Amino acid sequence: MRVLNSAPPRPGVDRRRFLGALGGLPLMAGGLVACEAEEQTPVDDEPIELSVFWWGGTRRAEATEKALRLYSEQNPRVRFRVTWQGLTGYYDRLATQAIGGNAPDLFQIDDTVLTEYAQREIVLDLSGYVADERLDLGGLPAGLARYGQVDERTVAVAAAQTGAALVYNRDLLRRLRMPEPRTGMPWRDYVEWAGRVTRASGGRVAGTMDPSGDYRALWLWLRGQGDELYQGRQLGFGSAELLDWFELWEVARSRRATPSAVLVEQADTGDLAHQLVVTGHTAASFAWSHQLAELQHDTDDELGIVSLPGTPAAQWARASMYWAAFRGTRHPGVVVDVINFLTTNVAAGRILGVERGLNASVPVRRFVADGITDRAQKRLVAFGAALDDLLGPAPAPPPKGHAKVRTLLIAAAESIRSGRSGARAATSRFIAGANAALAE
């Protein structure tokens, strides 16, 4: 834990007891009583301490803390108590804090939990602040702003924009004299390309990671066919569509376009250091675009980036993560002002850079892009700019139960790859399990 700014904490500020809980406990009856004393009475000059919590690495921490210090320099009565950690265990810790009534005033979440946190009234409804422009989302792409809404209420603000990306080893392809993948390449053409890469390498390197258990790839594949991953609180596709998806990757495996099941399972953990494009086991992997710079640090070969196969219109302006305020914060107006600062202030944007992704505000994004010198970050900016005019409409954020659905998809794909199950049986189990998870 680290405290930014040296002003003493305000005496007598205790967190409200969180009247509901996560995971299996009911919604709060009527929600927390909003603490609006700050906005009903004149603002005094007493110091305010806000707690802030996020996940990420050292570079993200250094940039975020520096941006918060800048806010304190411009607003001397506000200081921050910051805590950060890796993603593993992050949501468990956040849930524990919320249950104990000690949730941070400001915290980072992603779309895995956005809907659940909104429906359980853990996060502050920001709609009123947007309506009176104390929270200025005018600079955000319309789809990115909408992707922070649940039930037509703004409940979080994108900390940055990202996209699902195909990251490939450009130097390896040059050595093999193979063409680079391209945005808009049909999925079946991509599988054919990957098989040719494997053959060109003499079987030493597989052409592509197997994304059959990757919900991002499945979602974009579905959208390319006019379907969705979800429709409200239900799956947006049926057994036939999922079976087609699994069979596409069975064909890829039969053509040796993908690596062994063991290697794919290691990469399925999500650890960037295990991404097969940087370990040298594949020519291409699937990742978030904002992870390009970190992946580049893990290999001496130059990495390239394009959109996932299929129509780029299947993509949308997607939040890599959000800033959300705790429903029970004693200082909602100040927390919202901090979110506004992190989103719209050019100096803060330059400090934050593109570590979380492209700046959410397009005007800020342009200023930041002009100062970028890192080659991988330049490729990220170019990727985002090339994709901007091709994006489709944003879907609703995933419903409660999304995390379980993701886990079930990985398990189904692994059972097929390992030969423990056929594609039809795995599809039936997934559909049944996913429907049950979404109904909870």
Automatic annotation (TrEMBL):
Pfam families: SBP_bac_8 (PF13416). InterPro entries: Bact_solute-bd_prot1, SBP. This is Carbohydrate ABC transporter substrate-binding protein, CUT1 family. The lineage of its organism: Bacteria, Bacillati, Actinomycetota, Actinomycetes, Micromonosporales.
